[in-house]
Amino acid sequence: MSLQCKICGNEYTNKAFKWCKPCQINYLKRNFINWTSGNENIDEFIKEMQFKINSYYDIIFEWIPYSHFNNIKEISRDDYITIYSAIWYNSPLYYDEHKIGYTRYQFCRYKNVNLKCLDNLQITTNEFLNKVNAYSIKRQDNIRKIYGISQNPNTKDYIMVLEVNSIYCEKCNKKYTEISHKWCKPCQLNYFKSTNFTNWTSGNKKIDQFIQNMQLKIDAYDDIVFEWIPYNQFSNIKKISNDDALYLAIWKDGLLCYDEKINNQENQNKNIALKHLCNPQYIGYYMKLSKVNAYSIKRRDDIRKIYGISQNPHTKDYVMVLEDSYCPKCDGKYADTSYKWCKPCQLNYLKSNFTNWTSGSKIIDQRIQEMQLKIDSFDDIVFEWIPYNQFDNIKEIYEYGYITIYSAIWEYGTLCYDGNETEYTRKQFNKDKNVTLKLFRNPQTDKFLDKVNAYSIKRRDDILKIYGISQNPHTKDYIMVLEVNSEYCEKCDKKYTDIFHKWCKPCQINYLKSNFTNWTSGSKIIDQRIQEMQLKIDSFDDIVFEWIPYNQFDNIKEICEYEYITIYSAIWKYGSLYYDSDRTEYTKKQFDKNKNVTLKLFCNSQTDKFLLKVNANSIKRRDDILKIYGISQNPHTKDYIVVLEINSKYCEKCDKKYTDMSHKWVKSCQINYLKRNFTNWTSGNESINKFIQMIQLKTDYCNGIVFEWVPYDQFNDITEMVDNHAKVYSAVWKDGPLYYYDNIKEWTKKRNTSTKVILKYLHNSQEINNEFSNEYNTLYGISQDPNTKDYIVIQAENCKKCDEKYIDVIHSWYNPCKIHHLKKNFTNWTSKNETIDDFIKKTQLSNGYFNDTFEWIPYTQFNDIKEIGKGGFATVYSAIWKDGPLYYDDNIKKWIRKPGANKKVALKCMRNSQNITEQFLREAKVHSKKTSIYILSIYGISQNPDSKDYIMVLEYVEGGDLSKWINKNYDKFNWSYKLLSLWNIVRGLKEIHQKNMVHRDFHTGNILIKNEYWPCIADMGLCGKVDDNYDIDEKDEKKVFGVLPYVAPEVVLKVGKYTQASDIYSLGMLMYFIATGKQPFYNRAHDQYLAISICGGVRPEISEPEAPKCYIDLMKRCWDANPDHRPNIDEIFETMKLLNDSKQPQEIRNQLEEAEEYRKANPLSIEVIQSNTHPQAIYTSRLLNSITKDFPMYDNINNITAEYIDFTAE
Predict the structure, then answer these.
(1) Of 48, 426, 575, 939, which one is least surrounded by beta carbons within 10 A?
(2) Cβ proximity of 464 and 504 under 8 Å
(3) What's the CA gap between 368 and 1006, in Å, rounded?
(4) How far is residue 778's CA from residue 758's CA, in Å, rounded to a whole number?
(5) Is the Cβ–Cβ distance between 2 and 18 less than 8 Å?
(6) What is d(CA 1013, CA 164) in angstroms, rounded to the nearest whole number?
(7) Are 613 and 606 in contact (CB under 8 A)?
(8) Separation between Cα atoms, residue 72 and residue 882, nearest integer Å
(9) What are the DSSP calls for 486-517, one per residue?
(10) DSSP label of 1127
(11) CA end-to-end span of the chain, whole Å?
């Protein structure tokens, strides 16, 4: 490969892009005669600018005719400068390394530019050209770019043609001081100096100078512009101090704000504070030292803000205009600005009021004062001493222990803070307030006050509120004055566990504990268990587990008996306890009397074992477990009894929910029955016995087959059948198989019933394990010929599902109904191509065990066909498939289509595929064999009747490919989602590799997004077995295809075929894209120079904390130059599993958190990436042989690096 310029023979200035500076300068010189501005100075300047190019990427400064601009619109005007937006339809020059010259790219036409027009009457040509030098032709400079000069043919004004870039100020072309708000400090300062200073005056030079200095201190867009504010701008002026120094007012116009989006109305009628400065002759001293400088114009400072200065026209006092979020009394910031509440001042007010009340007890007074000084918010309750005579309508609610609860009306109500008056007052709306009085009889003062701490004065706390303390003047008992709140228990003042039902768990537990002495079973162990069960209640509707005397049961009737258990039905006279929310206690309800229950009596059981049985049932009414009400005892036999609910959903023997409700069948019960029956039969062979027992224990439903040992003498009419592979007989089984009977809830044989069966002879018992261990659900069991000693497998003569005879007697479990129906349908369709027909038939028969199938789909079935993408070898369309796919309905035992399906699908049309290719069929086969949700599904094959191109009908994926999806959603694509998405991609690739296959074209375009973070792998056209050789063409030339940055170096250099290791290399590049949002080598042409760089070890740059270290380490191992050093898919899968695990090591969690913080702090600009993407960076699959054709063949990966170095040294 030549690295010398083809024109001059010297080495390229830039080898990668074949750019030779001397030759390109000469080209520009030769082009001088093709343009002119009509002004020698301008022409000379443009030539000098063109000679300044140093890189292929530099802008070619041009004379641009005014006629090349369209859609010219004025943006701004300032003195002698006018800025316009325009569209330059011809676009800038770009260097094309293939043409080895400059050209105008089609994709860059109609470029948006700014035109900066300077008035010729106020500026000379030389001055204009000096201003041009403020801009740059270096694309990589951090200075605004200029494309050239133009001239308005009408006004003759010269124009600078500039890039459109929102980060630069349109007036001075410097980068905005604050880009997001388009705020330029130099321009704003110039505005104040040149314009604003002359538009106002205070009438005092020193004041004016001070204001101007303050205005020039602004550093941010949201700094306050310090102003002279005429006094007539203020209204509603209200004095708030006694010394005429402080006032509140409304400023009509409000302060200046910098933001073109803000409506000035938002700042009008602004609340402010006015602080008068006396002795105006000393105003300079006050300004500079002690007054104004104590305030701030920085909005982000935590210092009181000052808006400017005014003057009272009557008193001539100067006035500071301040924000009103500070207390006028102490000048401190309000603790709550909206309510003008100042904590220090309010505490001082309360302290000063201590002398205006007393309880008559120093200890009580001290506690009230302490409580008052705990306020932290304007809406905290001011804890008070409340005279008893302020309560009316006092009524006792109830009494318990030494406490009596009353309801009452508090005549004056609580103190409330008034933000307008900035003081506490009693409000009209709060008078005659309902309260609860909690009276403590004869308490010690200290103990009473300890009780006060259980309540809160914080209105926002989730604790019952207390207003203060009072005292009954007659009994001298102290009283707590509490809020009335239906959410709190009146006994313990805690929030109800269940507010709606007024159920308080602690109080109800205490009630049950206090009731323990009112009952006994006569057994300490039983009593203890009942108490434990009672204390487990968590809800108002939990069952209160009880000791139930036997004499409470009537109409006791035996239902059944098994082993040591007898089950009875009975009527419980009083029924269970229910919680009464009106009385807030447990009681027996009328509706629950004479309750039907089940009594489960355990004969002669030990107490401990009996109590273990109790744990199988539940006291939770909402649990899906049989409920238990309590324990009783037969007084005659002394047997203990479990008292249970009657529920037809549960088995009476085991108390488990029926597995099959309609047949009253419980798997666990029936499995136990079969276990107990193991002793009633034997094959005479321990291995066979264990095999049969194992299969019996897998019985899952009542109408299933119970696999059995069947004695040979059970068979009659044994007749040999013709079979080329085995000894097969038909026979009649006298007793027939076991059936489950609902009425007795057991397996049994039908009376006077015989069953036709097939007997298949086996050579040895090992054959049973090898061939039939997974197919037991279609077989009746095993027998043995007593003469030959051969074991026999017994199966039904007909298919259990469709009642048809099996197509293949020996392999009956291979879905005879499904396969048979598909075979019968073969004559109803054709593609008119024998190869395609054979392929579809074989695929249908091999996939017959699925509930969907592969089809030939006529093209007329598709509507609304739209192109949605184009790859290197195919075009993809979306379409609506009218009838939709076939699926097998197990209920009706047929293949059917959903009515009105109108299923959206993707049509992959292989270009020039009129003659069906091995590659097309291979891709269809791989898609049809997939078993993972992470690989795209295929429905069948079709053909375009016009082009005759064959089409794969695939699952339609809404999200598009990974690259497009991430470009749209990168702002929410955090590290949790990145790792989950990558793990799902790895799952799909793992399935491919586990089948000993290679994808061969693994890149972002072949990863489709089904929905958020659910990717699937597509485009299996190149996927095949590890040892396939279809990457060699007819001339034995190695074919290289794909997206260059994703192709492994050993494939590029033809060291070997595509391998699973080359897929892992592609996965490493995919990891880079997921981590950064940037395609690998997006800013470089995908040509032989990039290929050389990749083979020489160049990889995309990435470092911590952009991605976690553990992630980067794995990624770099994946793209290692030596395929032997790359991890396999199993190792990657396990690593991704760890990274997605919520219990990952702390070190990894720290790395992930750091990467996530970095992502938030450095948001990705997709627009910037797209603007910097090289026009020859190609991310669709293509043949790459034109790039790699000059590369030598290698036979050893270890030689690549050395030979690459020698190659580039030429």
Answers:
(1) 48
(2) no
(3) 74
(4) 12
(5) no
(6) 36
(7) no
(8) 50
(9) TTB-TTT-SBPSBTTTTB-HHHHHHHHHHTGG
(10) P
(11) 9
Amino acid of residue 336: D
898 is in an annotated binding site: yes
SS3 824: helix
Give the span between the Cα atoms of 1054 and 1065, in whole angstroms.
15
- Does the pLDDT value for residue 806 go beyond 70? no
Mean pLDDT rounded to a whole number for the chain? 84
Crossing angle of helices 1146-1161 and 975-994, rounded to 10°: 120
The torsion angles phi and psi of 53, rounded to 5 degrees, stand at -65, 140
CATH number for domain 833-955, candidates 3.40.50.10320, 3.40.50.1260, 3.30.200.20, 3.30.70.100: 3.30.200.20
Window from 289-298, 372-381, 528-537 with minimum mean pLDDT: 289-298
User: Using CA atoms, how far apart are residues 16 and 790, in angstroms rounded to an integer?
Assistant: 79
CA dist., res. 952 & res. 924, Å (int):
7
Euclidean distance between CA atoms 619 and 543, whole angstroms? 5
CA distance 389 to 802: 91
Q: What is the CA radius of gyration of the chain?
A: 45
Q: 3-state SS string over 544-568?
A: CCEECCHHHEEEEEEEEEECCEEEE
Pair 666, 658: CB distance under 8 Å? yes
Positive or negative torsion for Cα 359, 364, 369, 371:
negative
Which H or E element spans position 403?
strand 403-410
Q: In this predicted model, what pLDDT tens digit does every residue of 38-90 receive, in sequence order?
A: 999 999 999 999 999 999 989 999 999 999 999 999 988 877 789 999 999 88
Could you tell me the two tokens for 778?
A: 């279609």
For 707, 843, 1046, 1091, the CA distances from 775, given in Å and listed in that order, are 11, 23, 45, 55
User: Which amino acid is located at 667 in the chain?
Assistant: K
Indicate the pLDDT class of residue 849, thresholds 50, 70 and 90.
very low
Class assignment of domain 505-523+534-645?
Answer: alpha beta
- CA dihedral (1194, 1199, 1201, 1207) positive or negative: negative
pLDDT at 803 over 50: no
CATH tag for 343-483 (out of 3.40.50.300, 3.30.930.10, 3.30.200.100, 3.30.200.20)? 3.30.200.20
Domain 667-814 class in CATH: alpha beta
Which residues have a Cβ under 8 Å from the Cβ of 115 and sit 6 or more positions away? 69, 72, 83, 84, 85, 86, 150, 159, 160, 161, 162
- Are the C-beta atoms of 738 and 747 separated by less than 8 Å? yes
**432 CB neighbour count, 10 Å cutoff:** 13
**One-letter identity of residue 409:** I
